[in-house]
Design goal:
Radius of gyration: 23 Å
Distance between the termini: 25 Å
Number of strands: 0
Largest sheet: none
Helix content: over 70%
Number of helices: 13
Length: 272
């Protein structure tokens, strides 16, 4: 299908506008991070007078990111790993209809995504189990919500040929072995997408740690951003540095997995 020159120009304009909407906030954030507090107060939108990389070092030390970063890596890594494993074990039998009422169970999973977060029952349960203010309790909380990864896995597994299951069963391949030696390698694109979405949700969470983790030594990296808020004045340049520090690991993770993202997002959309 050939596009006219006018429609092509309109497409380019729309793409450039969308690019500006995404890039300008990042540029402004980086520009603020290069300023001093006085320079920012004099003119918040002006260009920085110089490159002050020492702001990042000061923000790292003042925000205690060295301790918070390792906590976030632990929470994000363990929660993402456990969430993906649970999602695989739950998605496979539902996608293949190996259990009764598969459609009904799938609908319940789907409905749960649109329900409000039950903070009070969760807090009561965690407190009664003795897991309040523990790293294990917080990891279990972030693991229980499989979220969008489970739904994507179900859609992707439906597109995988069912003959693979029968061939593996005839060769004597066990259930768990089949999942991790045959199915999981085929799910690399959708797994990468699930890792990204799950990791972003855990890494950026600030409400959960505030409620369930009262010990400062257990707080994640997002807690360090509160250091730059004051009662009468905020240190905006250091806060901008802190935001960039918090964002950088997710950017690195996305760059490492980005070649799988498009394939994972489209997985299951076209049936074989």
């Amino acid at each position: 299908m050939k596009q006219s020159q006018t429609s092509r120009m309109v497409s380019y304009v729309i793409v450039l506008l969308m690019l500006a909407l995404y890039v300008f906030p990042l540029f402004y954030l980086f520009n603020v991070s290069m300023k001093t507090q006085t320079e920012y107060l004099l003119d918040p939108v002006a260009m920085a007078e110089g490159i002050r990389l020492e702001n990042f070092s000061e923000a790292w030390n003042k925000g205690n990111f060295s301790q918070y970063m390792w906590n976030s890596v632990l929470y994000t890594g363990m929660s993402t790993l456990l969430t993906l494993m649970l999602s695989i074990f739950a998605a496979f039998p539902l996608a293949r209809r190996y259990v009764k009422f598969s459609t009904l169970i799938y609908i319940f999973f789907l409905i749960s995504m649109y329900l409000p977060n039950p903070l009070i029952p969760q807090f009561s349960l965690i407190n009664n189990l003795g897991l309040y203010n523990t790293q294990l309790g917080y990891i279990l909380l972030k693991t229980t919500g499989t979220g969008i990864a489970f739904l994507m896995f179900v859609g992707y597994i439906k597109s995988v040929s069912r003959e693979l299951d029968e061939a593996a069963a005839m060769d004597g391949c066990g259930y768990t072995r089949y999942l991790f030696t045959i199915l999981v390698p085929l799910m690399k694109p959708i797994l990468a997408t699930g890792i990204i979405l799950t990791a972003i949700g855990v890494w950026n969470d600030i409400i959960g740690p505030t409620i369930y983790l009262s010990d400062p030594s257990y707080q994640p990296v997002t807690k360090g951003l509160f250091t730059f808020y004051g009662q009468y004045m905020n240190n905006w340049p250091l806060l901008a540095c802190g935001i960039l520090i918090v964002t950088l690991p997710l950017v690195v993770l996305y760059v490492a997995l980005q070649r799988f993202i498009v394939g994972g997002a489209m997985a299951g959309a076209i049936k074989s």
